[in-house]
Amino acid sequence: MKKGYMYILQCSNGAYYTGSTIDLDKRLAQHQAGEGANFTKKHLPVSLVYYEEFQRIDDAFYREKQVQGWSRAKKEALIKGETNLLNELSKCQNETHFRNYKRKDGVSSSLNAQRSICYINSVNYKKSNGLLIFDLETSVTCV
Fold first, then answer.
1. Which of 45, 60, 117, 133 is the S-S candidate for 4 at Cβ 3.0 to 4.6 Å?
2. Integer CA distances (angstroms), 94 to 15, 27, 139, in order
3. What pLDDT digit, counting tens, does each position of 36-92 carry?
4. Domain-wise residue ranges, the chain
5. Looking at the predicted structure, is the pLDDT value of residue 93 above 60?
6. Taking residues 123-137, what's their average pLDDT?
7. Topology of domain 4-69, per CATH?
């Protein structure tokens, strides 16, 4: 099996494009000539900002799919070689994530908080077009 490359391009609009190939030089020339992916065609010129070499193209393709799912900040840490930041940048930053959730009384959720057992006292729902719609104000008691 042929060796492969996972690469990251920076497009003229500042966006990153992640791809994989068996011939990095040829693929870069294709991107620059507008023969690459539709995204890069619309944002020429592009510049190679990062690549990894693999013994097998399927490993490069797997890595491409992994990196494509990363946030911009995480890709930039990889490009800059700041691999020590990758784990921290993997953590969910959404305010509704359980690590970041703040209760209505202002108390932050904590991984070290004592666990509670919760019982559903009542469930309010209605049926609409064959679907059950649950009320967000369902009564719950935790002990």
1. 60
2. 22, 36, 25
3. 899 999 999 999 999 999 999 999 999 999 999 999 999 999 999 998 888 888 876
4. 4-69
5. yes
6. 64
7. GIY-YIG endonuclease (3.40.1440)
